[in-house]
Automatic annotation (TrEMBL), chains A, B:
SUPFAM superfamilies: Recombination protein RecR. May play a role in DNA repair. It seems to be involved in an RecBC-independent recombinational process of DNA repair. It may act with RecF and RecO. Keywords: DNA damage, DNA recombination, DNA repair, Metal-binding, Zinc, Zinc-finger. This is Recombination protein RecR. It holds the Pfam family Toprim_4. It comes from Tranquillimonas rosea.
Amino acid sequence: MADSDIESLIELMARLPGLGPRSARRAVLHLIKKRGQLLTPLADAMAKVGATARECVNCGNIGTEEICAICTDDRRATGELCVVEDVADLWAMERSKIFKGRYHVLGGTLSALDQVGPEDLRIPQIAERIDREGISEIILALGATIDGQTTAHVIADEVDGRDVRLTTLAQGVPVGGELDYLDDGTITAALNARKSF
Amino acid sequence: MADSDIESLIELMARLPGLGPRSARRAVLHLIKKRGQLLTPLADAMAKVGATARECVNCGNIGTEEICAICTDDRRATGELCVVEDVADLWAMERSKIFKGRYHVLGGTLSALDQVGPEDLRIPQIAERIDREGISEIILALGATIDGQTTAHVIADEVDGRDVRLTTLAQGVPVGGELDYLDDGTITAALNARKSF
């Protein structure tokens, strides 16, 4: 029988994605055993992030300032704007270290099922940013899902008439991927987009 | 690119058992989105547990007092002492709500490989508790592993000569278990311990 403070900590931990009641209990025991190295620093880090984290008013990235570090970095004013669904996708792009422009985080995708319309996402702001920041290329880095592709089409309509190049990520065989394990759609896309060797 | 405070939070979260870098990132984004409902309460709960959690000096359970709630509960002075490896096992026993006695948490098992000897565990204290608390039965609820069984034998030697009944948990087919999926050892144990129907 755990103490009530420990019980509430377990209950809160179990609400994290990827953790259930069992792994939450295991995590809490681990935290208590590693109090100095892990529990206290983690509590402090959470309190700090809780007090300072905020959405960038320009792009929707999460940072600690009103305008995030990417939006204020002059070296990233390349005229390229990468549109992503979520902050997790922005982080994934940044880890690849290949994109040097700025981002625009939609905050999700359009979804008829979940009743998410363009006004629920950061879509109207894209046109504003094109006009204000001198964007020459919009890279649609959205998921290869129905909702992701619907969203891409809506954005294309939205920026239609502006002098801006619209591109999307290539589809094909993932690096390290084996054909045997790929779905038909990916193989079709990879074949259609085949390149001379 | 996440902010450095967010980066350190992710790095700390990734050190929890069951979470890797990817799931830590996902958890942190979730926390930031649910700041009021989850991030702040979790930071508070961690700080509270970090400040108050301690090992019971009597049994090794984790609580907030010098002697835990189970050890101070007079209704649990049944003369039965359940010896478990870890606090997680104590919690598992408590969830079954069937055991009404008290516990003794060893803090691990003896292990020649990891150089864990009897003096590293809470083994000598068992004999002391028998003398002090009037224990009539020791239930060895240790894992059915080599190390668990070695530990059980060492404890048996330790309490030898005292007027105390020594029992272990029954081995057999788990409730809901299918024979087809059981290992040979479990089937052998279940057959040897068969009961009249």
